[in-house]
Amino acid sequence: MTVPAERVPRRPALPGRVLPLLLVVALLVPVAFLFAQQRRLTDDDRGLAVRERMGVEYLRALGPVTLALVDAQSAAVAGRTASRDALNRAVQDAASVDTRIGDQLRTHDRWTGLRAKLEALPDRALTDPEAAFVAYGEVTDLLLALHRKVREGSGLMRDPQSDSFFLQDAVSEELPEALVTAGRLADLATLAARRPTAERIRTGPELAGLRVAALTPATDLVTDLRAAVDSTESTKLGANVLTPLDNYQRAVERLAALSAPTGQAGTEDAPGLGGLTELTAARNNAQSAARQLQPVILDELDVLLRERVDRLDRERWLAGAALGAAVLLVAALAAMLVAAYRRARRRAVGEHRADEDAGASPGGTGWEPPGEPRGPAPLGTLAPAEPRTLQPAGRGRAAGTARWGPFDAAR
């Protein structure tokens, strides 16, 4: 007779157990990679926007320095003794800003050199206006170089958005250069009126070059602001910028008309250009319009950058939330797979135990060895002893004593 083989528990194969978990991990890896890439790009963009806001803050502090320095130059060239209070206050404010963020923008060395030149300027008007024009020209060159350094160190010149790029170009490059060159144009016209006639002729090309140098950045400023208004998605930029821009544009057009060469060597009020008094007034109007326009541009630029930072923060939060949700979903899937594996294992073990119980029970499918036929015992064989009940130790000893008592007495 064939003996049935013992059934062993059924267990899932190793690839069948590991493959689902590997698929879960394979699903999580690209999600984590995409999150890391998105986080890195977002951090780079956010870091750039934060540095650009620092640049806007620095430019806001340099604006009063530029205006006060141009006024001080005009007073020195004209032979007037102007108050240095406005310039000193502007220098102190800019110094505090540079102390706080100058190292991050890498402008500290430039500012230190500029401040030394500013403090070296005389408090009183120089007896030689020509020397004053040269001395202030050196300081304004350093100031324009500091503006360029702020653009470079803060990343404003690499701004990726069209509207904010045009705004930063207008306020950090074109506007300071237009202010400085317009002041030089009016001051050189003042000096030319005092020069001898022979020197005035030689001054003509210099004045023509300064006129181009003053009008070119002013025209570029207007172009930048109109391009920013046309390319922006903000509904407030145009309304806030266009009115002061129109005022500045009219003042620049007036300055351009008065500074055009006439071909005549006029009197003190008309030194070969237009009237000197009218030219100075046009320069003052352009400077006043620029004083109103500059904070408007800086405010609008800062609003755009702040909105960009907020948007990037929201994107970072959403990316983190998406990663967390993906991790939770993958963890839930892994838990379901593990639970399914455990249920399958318990089911296999239960089936194995059921098979063992069925084989050991009577009438089961288990095999039993053949036995002798049952019936009455044959003669001459001993009958099985009757079962005896075990008695407690005390009771058995007492019964034996009572049984052998008479025998002991007869002896």
Shape: elongated
Beta-strand proportion: under 5%
Helix share, percent:
over 70%
Mean pLDDT figure: 79
Indicate the low-confidence ranges by residue numbers.
Answer: 265-274
Instruction: Give the N-terminus to C-terminus distance in angstroms.
Output: 67 Å
Largest sheet entry:
none
- Specify the number of helices: 10
Number of strands: 0
Radius of gyration: 50 Å
Helix/strand-derived class?
mainly alpha
Order of helices and strands: HHHHHHHHHH
Could you walk me through the main structural features you see in this protein, from its secondary elements to its overall organization?
The chain is an all-alpha fold and 411 residues long. The protein has a domain at 53-306. The chain has helices at residues 14-78, 85-105, 108-120, 129-154, 162-194, 197-231, 237-258, 276-360, 393-403, 405-410. Helix 2 (85-105) runs antiparallel to helix 3, helix 4 (129-154) runs antiparallel to helix 5 (162-194) and helix 5 (162-194) packs antiparallel against helix 6 (197-231).
